[in-house]
């Protein structure tokens, strides 16, 4: 059975909400490979007592772009990004680029707890047979995409 990978990102005012949500769903996350940006990853490790969470850089320092690269490389199956719609972010272009790359590669994105709940409890999260359609960019790039 293929292990699904989830990237977890949260803005400062949403970190506690994300950490609490993941803690409440520990059994569902137990079988998933987790990636997280900087501080969010550290808080998750401390809260869950899991040291197998891959922590990347903080978002403003390139963590959003690292997650975007992992999406483009086919390493991420789900992006959970609790972003704060009320707080301007100095690295907004990076955030938009991350959301764009997730949409481009047909990766589900949850931007709030309600959507994250729907996706995490979906049968597709445990269905090894389901493979989301990956776009074919060969006409755009002039080469086959694997």
Describe how the helices and strands are arranged.
Blueprint: E1 5-10, H1 15-24, H2 26-29, E2 33-36, H3 38-48, E3 54-55, H4 63-72, E4 78-82, H5 92-104, E5 109-110, H6 113-120, H7 138-141
Parallel strand pairs: 1-2, 1-4, 2-3, 4-5
Helix pairs in contact: 1-3, 4-5
Textual characterization of the structure:
The protein has 146 residues and is of the alpha/beta class. The protein has a single domain (5-125), classed as Rossmann fold, CATH 3.40.50. The chain has seven helices and five strands; from the N terminus they run βααβαβαβαβαα. The chain has helices spanning 15-24, 26-29, 38-48, 63-72, 92-104, 113-120, 138-141, and strands spanning 5-10, 33-36, 54-55, 78-82, 109-110. Helix 1 runs parallel beside helix 3.
User: So how many helices?
Assistant: 7
Give me the secondary-structure category: alpha/beta
N/C terminus separation: 20 Å
Largest sheet, described in full?
A: 5 strands, parallel
What is the CATH superfamily?
A: Methylglyoxal synthase-like domain
What would you report as the Rg, rounded to the nearest angstrom?
15 Å
